[in-house]
Amino acid sequence: MHGTSQLAGGGVWEDVVNVIRKYGVVPTSVYSGLCYGLENHNHAELDAVIKAYADALIKGKVLTTAWKEGLNGILDAYFGEIPKTFEYHGKKYTPESFRDMLGLNMDDYVCLTSFTHHPFYTWFAMEVPDNWAGYPAYNVPQKEMLDTTVGALDKGYAVWWGSDVSESGFVYNSGIAFNIPETITTEEGTELSKWADVKTNQRAEMVKKMLKGLIAEREYTQAERQLAFDNYETTDDHGMLLTGLAVDQDGHKYFKVKNSWAESGIYKGYFYASYPFFVYKTTEVAMHKDALSKELKARLGYN
Amino acid sequence: MHGTSQLAGGGVWEDVVNVIRKYGVVPTSVYSGLCYGLENHNHAELDAVIKAYADALIKGKVLTTAWKEGLNGILDAYFGEIPKTFEYHGKKYTPESFRDMLGLNMDDYVCLTSFTHHPFYTWFAMEVPDNWAGYPAYNVPQKEMLDTTVGALDKGYAVWWGSDVSESGFVYNSGIAFNIPETITTEEGTELSKWADVKTNQRAEMVKKMLKGLIAEREYTQAERQLAFDNYETTDDHGMLLTGLAVDQDGHKYFKVKNSWAESGIYKGYFYASYPFFVYKTTEVAMHKDALSKELKARLGYN
Amino acid sequence: MHGTSQLAGGGVWEDVVNVIRKYGVVPTSVYSGLCYGLENHNHAELDAVIKAYADALIKGKVLTTAWKEGLNGILDAYFGEIPKTFEYHGKKYTPESFRDMLGLNMDDYVCLTSFTHHPFYTWFAMEVPDNWAGYPAYNVPQKEMLDTTVGALDKGYAVWWGSDVSESGFVYNSGIAFNIPETITTEEGTELSKWADVKTNQRAEMVKKMLKGLIAEREYTQAERQLAFDNYETTDDHGMLLTGLAVDQDGHKYFKVKNSWAESGIYKGYFYASYPFFVYKTTEVAMHKDALSKELKARLGYN
Amino acid sequence: MHGTSQLAGGGVWEDVVNVIRKYGVVPTSVYSGLCYGLENHNHAELDAVIKAYADALIKGKVLTTAWKEGLNGILDAYFGEIPKTFEYHGKKYTPESFRDMLGLNMDDYVCLTSFTHHPFYTWFAMEVPDNWAGYPAYNVPQKEMLDTTVGALDKGYAVWWGSDVSESGFVYNSGIAFNIPETITTEEGTELSKWADVKTNQRAEMVKKMLKGLIAEREYTQAERQLAFDNYETTDDHGMLLTGLAVDQDGHKYFKVKNSWAESGIYKGYFYASYPFFVYKTTEVAMHKDALSKELKARLGYN
Amino acid sequence: MHGTSQLAGGGVWEDVVNVIRKYGVVPTSVYSGLCYGLENHNHAELDAVIKAYADALIKGKVLTTAWKEGLNGILDAYFGEIPKTFEYHGKKYTPESFRDMLGLNMDDYVCLTSFTHHPFYTWFAMEVPDNWAGYPAYNVPQKEMLDTTVGALDKGYAVWWGSDVSESGFVYNSGIAFNIPETITTEEGTELSKWADVKTNQRAEMVKKMLKGLIAEREYTQAERQLAFDNYETTDDHGMLLTGLAVDQDGHKYFKVKNSWAESGIYKGYFYASYPFFVYKTTEVAMHKDALSKELKARLGYN
Amino acid sequence: MHGTSQLAGGGVWEDVVNVIRKYGVVPTSVYSGLCYGLENHNHAELDAVIKAYADALIKGKVLTTAWKEGLNGILDAYFGEIPKTFEYHGKKYTPESFRDMLGLNMDDYVCLTSFTHHPFYTWFAMEVPDNWAGYPAYNVPQKEMLDTTVGALDKGYAVWWGSDVSESGFVYNSGIAFNIPETITTEEGTELSKWADVKTNQRAEMVKKMLKGLIAEREYTQAERQLAFDNYETTDDHGMLLTGLAVDQDGHKYFKVKNSWAESGIYKGYFYASYPFFVYKTTEVAMHKDALSKELKARLGYN
Question: Is ipTM > 0.90 here?
Fold first, then answer.
């Protein structure tokens, strides 16, 4: 696309689905992808060199035939060469046969979202940079998105969750994500430094009060949810895994979320996202067809 | 798309089709779009301010609700406000009713292309920046693309033509576009200035010889056509109108092309594109369904 | 000026004076200028798009005639169209007639400053970017600037105050602005990060001590005031309103200042600026002619 | 001005006037200003380092007290130190006493211009970047500007001339400057390279025809002159000296112009500017008060 | 070098040695180098203007002969002109004669380092930007580098120390530098802001525990030391002076370090660097030949 | 070097020498290095991606261990993997054994230069970006450099030649390189476009006259040669091969030069460089020790 499409480390749920469908899957023990001297995944340098490499290419007027192999040369250096066959628990597999052995049918997974700039109960491609390939998601009202997700966890299914984690209310170190009401919204453009201090202080105090239960969490309507997306407040930041449901001593309901940031934070890699936060800040959820409600399953033509 | 999609003055044929389908059409005499002090269209300044305006928006973290109206404010300043109703030859119209009066059914137009990175006789969205909206074109072998286009002109249909005009062989001032064989392809990266002179001289001599008929035009295979697209040699430059067929004194065949660059060049706004140039450098052609061959019409499900 | 003059959201007191003189004034209830979805003024996005729009224009070699109307299109989108007539308390006004009804004679306002790079008791245009239009201010010794301002407030006049608010001693959240003595002035260029921590810590401690009254405030001479302006330490940051005088339990004197940052800080939108801070950091003050001392009024030719 | 004013090698006529008034003048034989290894003036490197030095300063938050002396250090290196006293034809002078000996009274020079965005017969500061200091010029109708200039040369006075030399009609190598009519004004933003060739060819042909006298020169009205200034077509490029009047074999009238580009072009450093070019493209002219018409002298209060 | 070598305020120990050898030395009381209005050294502005000046020069295609004198003009403005002769304690000196009077023989100083990408007991030029001139250092095992430095201080010699001070364990305000073990090394590129908070918190806790003696300091092997240099973790940040040895109540050993950051931190300009920190983070040490061990002195050919 | 050294496609003669010495050499028929779809060498894209890749790395704070292998991945994609063994004319070789079979002793080659900023008859590392590794050349007077080179060709040795080919006098398409006298050296910084035309015209005329033998070639002294290097006029552009000597009909002497720009120009890849051009514009020559004069061979310690 001559540089007019995003090239970055991120992607969406469907990228994973699509790759497994097309190429299969390999156990981590066989292919860790860690050939760059660290014990955990950190793609900062890889992302930087891939982007630089591609940007240099598109500045040229004419491309050679070697660029794709050069790109693979970089990827192989950081991840290792992809195994064509491998042994696992005494048996020999290809990535494809391993996927089939696991019984993964990628067509059984469905991605839900909830916005009003497209009609409900239709498919549309979410307009976010990470969705560079234009994968469609199925659009439902926010209440149905919540209920379906809760229902899925109730049935014992884990749910993939795409959300915005650059919010003031995403207090990861305290193991919680909730909606913080903001009272001051004015910001004069020219005196930013002093004024930014004022706002940062106010937010920090708000978080403290929220953690002590002194302020009720704010709930947002479907229209407010839409506005936050339209005006770039809600961004497509991070993908995590919903693994359970929880209720606190005051009766507030949460999803238990498994994060990929090692064993950090007070819950050692897990945290709790409130239902209102989920409703306001979810970009997409993805789950197995059997995790859906009957009605939704029918609408989507699964049997 | 937070800036990861193209925003520029250009677009593709289907943009026009789509706008007429959605909003209708207005006669030039009613709405010239020339509110900026020039007698002919020149969007350089408009393109620049629109891009700057949008780039400034996406740098912000949060958008206001006024940006869209501000954008319209700019467009209205350069083009004038779009007429909701207007009179034409004594009758009153809306853009929609004018389109209907003209008998334009936008679903009757089809766009053809010819590349091998997708199967022939399938639809795919050409991967060029101007095709920002992902409109699909129908993929046929290059010979069929040529034959269909010749056939359409034979039947009296004009054909929209998207092509690459930044080629050495696009000798607009001489009123001709053909394929120039290049013999020197070496280019040492470090001594560019002197070496570029060598190449420019050689190309200019080649053009002179071509114009005198001293060298035969080069024809390219489907594979070479594909390579030129893959390696950025063929770019999606410009849309024009094929209005006729022509043969020169040596029997070479040409399309007569109507350009939008005023009455310039030796043919006052027209020029001739050779069949081999058309085959090698066409990105897309678009025509009315009735201009297609019977076979293609059938394949595409038109009756 | 082809981009060699400042275009930004800021301006100086005289810009307001001049606009009211030329175009009149409108009550906020009639024209809030808030058409962009926020409840309070935040011009960050507007400033960004205006700047981008203008920068794109000046890069072009030739301008069209539509650019000014495009600019107005943006302004109208964010502020709304300026009312030509409006009703207020049952009467109909134009902006001009409303100004006249209010009895505002813009020639009755005068702007004072105090610097030594121009002679005292002469007018000169302050050399700061926001003074893009070259408005002159009247130059007096710093003591006279202080005394005149105190005198104006004593007589019951509010005073417009332009000052530098990006100082360590501008402790807005604590509701105070005073001069903090800095003892360490060394800063080795190459080890910035660590060294900056050292300085930040030291300043924070100094502020704490000042707030507890453990350190006396530093007073600056006219020469030191000049140096701070000459070497870019004093910048033309922000305009506020002086609304009263105050004395603390230790006898230190302050101006009560009304800020435009909503009801923030411990005094809900107000704070106290010490006299020494005022003397050191004021760029300009503006007041009604009747608020001036007799002598100054005479010097300026007011009767 | 923190970088919001122009710093460049250029300036306006009044800069010269002002410097002589303030500091005096020195003969070239005493102070050539050529201390950088060339035999003629070329300030490219000096301009670049001065701009870079100043840009680096304004990026800092606080200035030291040494920057001005550092700037002088650079200037002294390229120009040499300014002589405080010097001997000339056996007598000793200071720059001031030399100016006085020459009988130069800088208040005797006046600068004329002709635009309609300010009233005629008033002074205004031309809004061009080189006029960074806001010097005013006296505004007269374009015909009066022409007549006064012709009158001055008739009386034997040389006239300083500020004009736009980046025009197609400024054919310096052929020793002439005239107005070339342009017929094609369209320019589609997206296909620039090919289209630019078309325009360049057309202009070159137009120049050839003009030189052969095949096309009449275009004359412009005061309104067209204004438009060319407003839309950045007329720029404040270059200062030269009008030294005489000339008529060609067809009766067209010209100013003889002395340029500062060494003995270049067919007239060895001189060229001829047509009256219509002068009328259309002059930004300012400057002359001695005694060169003015009686009426203008009176209007300006000279006796 | 046309800009392909570093030009910055920093340098290495040998730059000092070399300048004294070539030009001599002057007492601070005679030549403070403080001509820019500050009481202590701060080269930020000077570095910026020197870099800008040089960058502007290398962009030109051809240089004039004045640039070097212009550079000296800047340096003289900030530092003052270098004294050719001066009086000190009643005697007259040149810089050279003053150096000789002090008995400084610059060939008596030697610089040690310890890396494995060159053989031990050979000289090599450290590949760091500040070593722009390619000065060689003598390579010894890290244990020998430590022992030699301790031995030198034992004998009463001060030792110059080049080290990396941008480490988390360089806790200057607490007066200590030690190695902090890091446990979390994962960092996902795309969610930087939140994740960075997690890491910063963890580091801060680690520092607190270290300061309370709750965690043992980590020691690094020669191979780990090398890796930190190879992968840019160890950088050539800052030069200081080792002036003594110390042991804390738990028996841990330290160098007492004199810093040049005024009387800052809890030890008023001094701090303590642990032996393990020294071993891991030293880039170079330099000392007098008589401070070396007998063996090393012999190896280096000193008698 | 953290980006403070040059990384580019170019290098110096000694790079080739050094690589053969260290790794051996392989026949072109075995390893063409052309794996990127072109028939001749064009490293533009490769240079661009390598530079981008490295620039991205040095922006990171810490490097992974995979970067070097990623770099090799790119190189292998464009050049192919380096053969460890290969067959040539029926025999099996390694690169090292092939070099030895050829009888190449890289220590037998010597590089000469001629500048006065280092003493003659000493070695120094030429201060040009391509000499990133600091290889030394042997410094001789320019006459001796010429005589030695002529002597070498007389004895039948080809001579490697590093020279500046971005000169006006390097008229490659006409097959000649000579020194063109320039008469106009003035260039006013502000009116570049018009003035540049003047200079370009003048140079083109000078070249025409030179080609017709109407002007004598200019010869430069050692001091002028030095100045051209010092002020960036002479740059280290291109390496070629001197293969013979020639004299024209007027007795002017030339080197016959073999270029690497395919069979271009009127001599199909060859051209003639005049002795004065060689003397003025040579940066370095390299030849076999046996091609040297007896005296030079002795000075250099060859037997």
Answer: no
